[in-house]
Amino acid sequence: MNKVMLIYPSGEQYQRGEDRCQINVEASVSNSLRACNDLGYAASILRNSGYEVFLRDYPAENLTYNDFEADFKNENPDAVFISTTNGSIFSDIEFVEKIKNMKPNIVVILKSALFFNPDENLFSEINLENIDYLIGGETEFIIKPLLEAHYKNKENLSLIEGICYKNNGKWIVNKLTAFNENIDKIPFPARDLMRNELYINPQTNRPMATIATSRGCPSNCIYCVSPLISGKKVRFRSVKSVYEEINECYNRFQIKDFFFKSDTFTINKQWVIELCDCILSSPLKGRINWVANSRVNTIDDEMLKKMKMAGCSVIALGLESGSEESLKLMKKGTTLEQNKTAVKLIKKNKLQIFGFYLIGFPWENKKHLDLTKKLIFDLDTDFIEISIAVPFKGSELYNMVYLGTSSEKNDKGIVEGRDSFKNTALCTEFLTNEELNKFRKDIILKYHLRPSYILKKIFNKNLTFDLFRNYIKYGIRLIKNVL
Q1: Longest dimension (CA), the chain
Q2: Is residue 107 very low, low, confident or very high in pLDDT (cuts 50, 70, 90)?
Q3: What is the mean pLDDT of the chain?
Q4: d(CA 177, CA 173)
Q5: Range 416-422 average pLDDT
Q6: If DSSP codes are grouped into helix, strand and coil, which group holds residue 123?
Q7: How far apart are CA 214 and CA 263, in angstroms?
Q8: How do beta strands 235-236 and 214-215 pair?
Q9: 2, 73, 134, 149: least surrounded by Cβ within 10 Å?
Q10: Given this model, what pLDDT does residue 106 score?
Q11: What letters, b where the CB count within 10 A reaches 16 and e where it falls short, cover 322-355?
């Protein structure tokens, strides 16, 4: 029986399971760490197939390479599966080099959106000599046939879409041509192997499980790789399957808080209302709390009322910009008026709002930033984050910045190793990285240090000691990251 070690390597905390954004959590001001579901899915599938598995999220536990080394020697795995990100790729590769020094014949598999149908440049920009396989497609449908092919018949590697493998020292790319429609087939993540208490909902200070409800996005935002890596067609899980996973989390693991992960949770009103009705007619009514994301043009009063009744407390919105021009050029598909209407509607239904903004596009100058600043303070959402656009490979923004449609192309340096907060990638032709970072830090500091904002948090009728303590913790992180 082969043993597989599934890990997030020690180092900074990234949202490694979030292929579309891959946020550096430690460098952000208000993002919380989410559960390592990608490891959990792979663990469930491999365990069901007869493999021994070991799962650990070293950054979440604040563990070092020495802790990993001790585990490695104790477990003596045959293969290591690592989920990597755009920002952590180089440090993760250094981590792999140490693994290979300990056990040269170990099989190393790296999974990342970086490896989705990659071009030849990837293999010259990143040193992959110590890696055996790259997964760029959906791991849940790949990990089992990949290991079976490795251990039983390597000729079958050519049949597995969404992977890269070596043949006589040369990387072979098996492009992904079709997405699996039946995502209900995927088993629930192996939460018995995950330390669920590490992933906290900052609003309740309780463990928060991440539950994927759908995959795919029909939108055309130029900065996002979701339509590429998940498909333009939205593939929904059945309401029955989602509810069963919620129920398992609640009854088996005593988890009451949830993040419903999707590219746009509210994209199908009928599905959302069906899920809410399922919760409301179940023993979980009034016992769970959940967070979901939305686009401003996919919600209405009826849906929000139903979501609130079923336990929703926070809605995350990609508001992006206060400039109508920027919204059009980034192909967001929404307008400033829709931004304002959505925020007003959500506030009316007494739900909290996490507003996300994105700056640093090729065309942006100080005028665009000033308009975004005005919108941020006008909307006055409960929480905000401002990210600097990273031209992820495969996105239209990458093509614009690196491949020819921007006049400042080809002098930006490679995009791997960059994220939205640290070592940001320069996209704009009119503003420097320093100016973008200064704008972000200035606005975040001014926004959170307003007396009105602080008083609103202090006099919140739902304020508890744990919540107050969390506000202090995030406030310290904010000041540390900004100053």
Answers
A1: 66
A2: very high
A3: 92
A4: 12
A5: 75
A6: helix
A7: 7
A8: antiparallel
A9: 73
A10: 97
A11: bbeebbebbebebebebbeebbebbeebebbbbb
Beta bridge partners of 315: 292, 353
- Does domain 199-482 bear CATH number 3.30.1330.30? no
Q: How many residues does the chain have?
A: 483
Which is higher by pLDDT, 244 or 406?
A: 244
Look at domain 3-174 and name its CATH class: alpha beta
DSSP, res 162:
T
247 phi and psi angles, rounded to 5 deg: -65, -40
Taking the mean position of all CA atoms in its chain, how far away is CA 265?
14
Query: Among all chains, which residue has been given the structure tokens 């239209």?
Result: 396
Q: CA-CA distance, 439 to 366, in Å (whole number)?
A: 10
Q: Where are the alpha helices (DSSP H) in 193-238?
A: 226-230
4 near 45, Cβ under 8 Å? Answer: no
- How far is the C-alpha of 32 from the C-alpha of 50, rounded, in Å? 34
Q: What is the pLDDT of residue 413?
A: 61
Domain ranges across the chain: 3-174, 199-482
DSSP state of 62: T
Residue with tokens 């020819």: 404
pLDDT tens digits, 138-166: 999 999 999 999 999 999 999 999 999 99
Residue 209, CA atoms < 13 Å, CB-side half-sphere = 26
Amino acid at 196: N
The owner of tokens 């107050």 is 468
Report the chain's C-alpha Rg in angstroms.
22
Residue 66, pLDDT above cutoff 90: yes
pLDDT 10s digits, 272-319 = 999 999 999 999 999 999 999 999 999 999 999 999 999 999 999 999
Nearest to 372 by CA among 453, 273, 439: 439
| 393 within 8 A of 383, measured Cβ to Cβ | no
For 316, phi then psi, to 5°, come to -95, 130
Residues 365, 280: Cα–Cα separation, whole Å: 48
* 235, containing H or E segment: strand 235-236
Q: In what order do the strands lie in the sheet with 200-201?
A: 200-201, 206-212, 257-261, 289-294, 312-320, 352-359, 383-388
